[in-house]
Design a protein that fits this description.
Layout: H1 5-10, H2 14-32, E1 39-45, E2 48-53, H3 58-73, E3 76-79, E4 82-85, E5 90-94, H4 103-119, E6 125-130, E7 148-149, E8 153-154
Parallel strand pairs: 5-6, 6-7, 6-8
Antiparallel strand pairs: 1-2, 3-4
Protein backbone atom coordinates (compact mmCIF):
# COMPACT_ATOMS: atom_id res chain seq x y z
CA UNK A 1 0.00 0.00 0.00
CA UNK A 2 1.50 3.32 -1.00
CA UNK A 3 0.98 5.07 2.34
CA UNK A 4 4.62 6.04 2.79
CA UNK A 5 3.90 9.56 1.52
CA UNK A 6 1.72 10.40 4.53
CA UNK A 7 4.67 10.94 6.91
CA UNK A 8 6.41 12.88 4.15
CA UNK A 9 3.58 15.43 4.16
CA UNK A 10 2.53 15.29 7.82
CA UNK A 11 5.92 14.73 9.40
CA UNK A 12 6.90 11.73 11.46
CA UNK A 13 4.34 12.28 14.19
CA UNK A 14 1.93 10.10 16.14
CA UNK A 15 -0.90 11.64 14.07
CA UNK A 16 0.84 10.57 10.85
CA UNK A 17 1.30 7.04 12.21
CA UNK A 18 -2.42 6.88 13.05
CA UNK A 19 -3.29 8.08 9.54
CA UNK A 20 -1.09 5.43 7.98
CA UNK A 21 -2.75 2.80 10.17
CA UNK A 22 -6.25 3.93 9.10
CA UNK A 23 -5.24 3.78 5.44
CA UNK A 24 -3.81 0.28 5.91
CA UNK A 25 -6.94 -0.91 7.69
CA UNK A 26 -9.14 0.38 4.86
CA UNK A 27 -6.86 -1.18 2.25
CA UNK A 28 -6.79 -4.49 4.12
CA UNK A 29 -10.58 -4.62 4.17
CA UNK A 30 -10.70 -3.83 0.45
CA UNK A 31 -8.05 -6.41 -0.44
CA UNK A 32 -9.78 -9.10 1.59
CA UNK A 33 -12.89 -8.60 -0.52
CA UNK A 34 -11.01 -9.78 -3.61
CA UNK A 35 -9.94 -13.09 -2.13
CA UNK A 36 -12.07 -16.17 -2.42
CA UNK A 37 -11.78 -19.48 -0.63
CA UNK A 38 -8.30 -20.01 -2.04
CA UNK A 39 -6.74 -16.76 -0.80
CA UNK A 40 -5.12 -15.59 2.40
CA UNK A 41 -4.27 -11.98 3.34
CA UNK A 42 -1.81 -11.06 6.10
CA UNK A 43 -0.02 -7.92 7.25
CA UNK A 44 3.60 -8.57 6.32
CA UNK A 45 5.37 -5.47 7.66
CA UNK A 46 4.71 -1.79 8.33
CA UNK A 47 3.30 -0.95 4.87
CA UNK A 48 3.05 -4.33 3.20
CA UNK A 49 0.46 -7.09 2.97
CA UNK A 50 1.21 -10.60 1.77
CA UNK A 51 -1.41 -12.39 -0.29
CA UNK A 52 -1.23 -16.11 -0.89
CA UNK A 53 -3.46 -17.41 -3.67
CA UNK A 54 -3.66 -21.17 -3.99
CA UNK A 55 -4.67 -21.52 -7.59
CA UNK A 56 -3.23 -23.68 -10.32
CA UNK A 57 -3.12 -20.76 -12.77
CA UNK A 58 -0.52 -17.99 -12.73
CA UNK A 59 -2.87 -15.99 -14.94
CA UNK A 60 -5.65 -16.20 -12.36
CA UNK A 61 -3.30 -14.84 -9.70
CA UNK A 62 -2.21 -12.06 -12.05
CA UNK A 63 -5.78 -11.01 -12.85
CA UNK A 64 -6.68 -11.12 -9.14
CA UNK A 65 -3.68 -8.85 -8.41
CA UNK A 66 -4.83 -6.42 -11.12
CA UNK A 67 -8.33 -6.34 -9.62
CA UNK A 68 -6.89 -5.72 -6.15
CA UNK A 69 -4.72 -2.89 -7.45
CA UNK A 70 -7.67 -1.29 -9.25
CA UNK A 71 -9.92 -1.75 -6.20
CA UNK A 72 -7.47 -0.09 -3.83
CA UNK A 73 -7.00 2.75 -6.32
CA UNK A 74 -10.68 3.57 -5.85
CA UNK A 75 -10.31 3.97 -2.08
CA UNK A 76 -10.44 7.30 -0.36
CA UNK A 77 -9.92 7.59 3.39
CA UNK A 78 -11.10 10.64 5.34
CA UNK A 79 -8.37 11.82 7.68
CA UNK A 80 -8.88 15.00 9.72
CA UNK A 81 -11.40 16.28 7.21
CA UNK A 82 -9.18 15.63 4.20
CA UNK A 83 -9.65 12.89 1.67
CA UNK A 84 -6.55 10.73 1.23
CA UNK A 85 -6.41 8.62 -1.92
CA UNK A 86 -4.81 5.20 -1.73
CA UNK A 87 -2.98 3.13 -4.31
CA UNK A 88 -1.21 -0.22 -4.21
CA UNK A 89 1.93 -1.59 -5.78
CA UNK A 90 1.89 -5.35 -6.15
CA UNK A 91 4.79 -7.75 -6.64
CA UNK A 92 3.71 -11.18 -7.86
CA UNK A 93 5.76 -14.36 -8.02
CA UNK A 94 4.21 -17.41 -9.63
CA UNK A 95 5.92 -20.61 -8.62
CA UNK A 96 3.57 -23.20 -10.06
CA UNK A 97 5.21 -26.58 -10.24
CA UNK A 98 8.48 -25.44 -8.65
CA UNK A 99 9.33 -27.76 -5.81
CA UNK A 100 12.93 -26.58 -5.46
CA UNK A 101 12.12 -23.13 -4.03
CA UNK A 102 11.78 -22.35 -0.38
CA UNK A 103 9.16 -20.05 1.14
CA UNK A 104 11.91 -17.46 1.56
CA UNK A 105 12.74 -17.79 -2.14
CA UNK A 106 9.16 -17.12 -3.21
CA UNK A 107 8.89 -14.17 -0.82
CA UNK A 108 12.19 -12.78 -2.10
CA UNK A 109 11.00 -12.96 -5.72
CA UNK A 110 7.69 -11.29 -4.86
CA UNK A 111 9.53 -8.59 -2.88
CA UNK A 112 11.82 -7.93 -5.85
CA UNK A 113 8.79 -7.47 -8.08
CA UNK A 114 7.19 -5.20 -5.48
CA UNK A 115 10.27 -2.96 -5.67
CA UNK A 116 10.00 -2.97 -9.47
CA UNK A 117 6.37 -1.87 -9.23
CA UNK A 118 7.28 0.92 -6.80
CA UNK A 119 10.19 2.07 -9.00
CA UNK A 120 7.81 2.21 -11.96
CA UNK A 121 5.75 4.79 -10.09
CA UNK A 122 3.46 2.50 -8.12
CA UNK A 123 -0.19 1.70 -8.64
CA UNK A 124 0.67 -1.32 -10.79
CA UNK A 125 1.45 -5.03 -10.75
CA UNK A 126 4.94 -6.37 -11.45
CA UNK A 127 5.31 -10.11 -11.84
CA UNK A 128 7.89 -12.81 -12.16
CA UNK A 129 6.99 -15.93 -14.12
CA UNK A 130 9.28 -18.93 -14.22
CA UNK A 131 10.41 -19.85 -17.71
CA UNK A 132 8.92 -23.34 -17.35
CA UNK A 133 5.40 -21.89 -17.06
CA UNK A 134 3.36 -23.08 -19.99
CA UNK A 135 0.72 -20.38 -19.77
CA UNK A 136 1.06 -17.33 -21.98
CA UNK A 137 1.31 -13.98 -20.25
CA UNK A 138 -2.16 -12.50 -20.75
CA UNK A 139 -2.92 -9.13 -22.20
CA UNK A 140 -4.62 -6.97 -19.63
CA UNK A 141 -8.33 -6.99 -20.35
CA UNK A 142 -9.87 -3.65 -21.28
CA UNK A 143 -11.89 -3.40 -18.07
CA UNK A 144 -8.77 -3.38 -15.89
CA UNK A 145 -6.59 -0.29 -15.58
CA UNK A 146 -3.45 -2.32 -15.00
CA UNK A 147 0.00 -1.29 -15.97
CA UNK A 148 2.26 -4.29 -16.17
CA UNK A 149 5.96 -4.07 -15.43
CA UNK A 150 8.45 -6.88 -15.13
CA UNK A 151 6.32 -9.26 -17.13
CA UNK A 152 9.25 -10.81 -18.94
CA UNK A 153 10.02 -14.43 -18.32
CA UNK A 154 13.16 -15.17 -16.33
CA UNK A 155 14.80 -18.48 -15.62
Amino acid sequence: INAHRIPDTMGFTEAAAQCVERVLQAAGLALGGYLGENGLLARFDDLTFAVLVMDPSANTAYLAAERMCAGVEGLSVDIAGQSVSVTASIGLASEKGRRDLTTDGVISRANGQLESAREAGGNCVARWVHSSAREPIPAVSGDLRGTVVGSQRKS
